[in-house]
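Here is this case:
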Amino acid sequence: MEAESVLKRRAFHEAGHCVVGFYRLGLVPLRSTVVPSDDGQTLGRTDWPYAESPQLAPFIAAAGRRLRPMGLVAADEQAARDLIALHVAGEVVAKRLTGVAMPDLAGDDLVKAMSLARYIDLRDPESIIEQISREVDADISEPATWQVIERIADVLLAGSTLERAELARLLAGA
């Protein structure tokens, strides 16, 4: 895949996280970027104020400011489903818009936790996105939502990083 299409896919991926977090959890990301991390671990990143979410804040407090997937899945099925939707939304959106699936989701800690709780079947890793799509579809089904995704992706492509105030403005424009 050439560099320009990889960057565009990454922008759609991060925009998907932003939109699903906003519609499902009412959260505006702290920032979103398509700039790879210095250590090469991530190709882009969207940072979340999890403590502002009524659904997730109790688990953050209980886990010492860090979500522990197995504890969340065991404690609250709906919060776990919300988190998995947020976590994998970027991949669902990017695959739909580009037709290309990239990461190995079967190795992801949250996906493993959801599998152990029997929410996701990892015996067929190729179908993980389709299994999780059911959690995300309602959040991204409206045409106006896709317009917001495209606007966020366009701004990310033009400037590489979006801060919270600009993300709030773009998300509210839906």
Summary: The mean pLDDT is 77.
